[in-house]
Amino acid sequence: MMRKTDRPSPFFPYHRGGMHCEGISLHELAKHSGTPVYVYSQSQLEQQFAAFDGAFSNKPRLTCFAVKANSNLAILALFRRMGAGFDVVSGGELQRALRAGADPRRIVFSGVGKTAEEIDLGLEKRILQFNVESEAELHAVEGRARAASRTAPVGLRVNPDVDPRTHPYIATGLRQNKFGVPIKSAVALLRRYAGSSHLQIQGIGCHIGSQITSLGPFVEAARKLRETALALRSIGIDIRYLDLGGGLGIRYRDETPPSASAYAAAISRELGDLDCDLILEPGRAIVGDAGVLLTRVILNKRAGGRSFVIVDAAMNDLLRPTLYGAYHRVLPVRAAGRPLRRADIVGPVCESSDFLARGRQLPQVKPGELLAVMSSGAYGFVFSSNYNSRPRAAEVLIKSNRFRVIRKREIFADLVRGEIARPFR
Known about the structure:
This protein is of the alpha/beta class.
């Protein structure tokens, strides 16, 4: 019997003996696209974005999708069509957003280490705001703006020293993290730069971490931002934008994250009547559950008292389990009803850390069967690499009973493009 926690989402149901994405059989899709392949439900992407953005409908806001979560051009174009802005953290992500048709005035540029070339690109495109994270970066942005005879719009990312109670690798708002400036230093720092003719200080913000499943840390951070915004206004610095970052979690296993509406209500209560436009930067909360990684069983193996299911997806395709010890449900594409056994689900990469799941109760599967690694829409393909000279997976978008390949599967020629087999004599 399938346990409650192992049931697929409504957009990946079992129908006629096999898992579907919306109206498309994943068995049939795999015949066309091969494996491994990332599969996304457009309807779920649309519903998740609308739910998140709509939860703040009583506030002036700009919902900037966090491009780092999933940077496929088709997905960015979909969100742009729905009115999204974009949160980018590199020149490459900025160019992706622009290629997807984004309005530069709806783009914020975050990140601790923007290069001179990246700052120049943001200035040239006239983006909405640079989220600066240190005095050194504030000075650098001012210098590049002076060289270009322009004024750079900036928001200061503060570090509110709030424990997000998440994995330490994705906690970003603690005192020891590299992100932002100490919140107690923000007013004095911005006071020093308030008279610059090449900086337009217009916002403050924070981002305390990712996969946060309780409201307390968000509320505490919002309260500290509100206090800082009011302190800045009291000295004549007009704060127009309050950037709340992202970080709202999803359910991978047994987590109970708050809904977008509960999150919005809590934030709105904390901010009260503060007159600022909100900048929101959701990523995982919108795309995480909307994607699966589809993989095929190569063989079964028994060794050292353990059972292994070896599949054609690996750590180079989905790094989260290796990097964070992250949990993803793994479900058979063929409907269950078979005896269960405990097994590790591993890939072909030559690393002991190459696994998708460990110690899982899984129906007995045979070579050639398909497995779906659930909730892989966020930080999935974007983390992929060519380690072991493995071509990266394809990506497919499904809407109702139609599908479209939105990234072709790489081939060997893609792996060696740009290389020259000519060593020195």
